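help with this.
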Amino acid sequence: VDFRVVDVVEMAGGTEVFGGVVGTSILHHLRLEEWLPSLANLVTDGGFIWFSEPNMLNPQIALERNVRPIGRWLQNTEDETAFFRWSLSSSLKQVGFVDVSVRPLDFLHPGIPQPLIKMASGMGLALERIPIVREFAGSLEVFARKPQ
């Protein structure tokens, strides 16, 4: 395994490819319509991508992304967005990814006090199993594979 931490935006358009590209809270800073084709080119045939990104259906995320003064107060940058899972899934398929899965997860808020994390984590896992409720989770787990 050759594991590297790199700036994939700088690598876009190069000749190097990877079996997997993994990131946390990366895509929501990029203009996906411009950048997704480059992401697809970074992955070998049969390779995969995995990202965790903000879910626009989460009430806090929707509020801070759509009410700019709140976003600035929370130190969001102007380029930040969040995703609806069905449109992100569609965008990944349009650039040629297959086995696309964009699923909501993670109700554990970073502001939970340390003594309550175990309890809150258990509650979050339970909420992730309830079909309608899980749609409001804080994150989206994004997986896709490039065809062989």
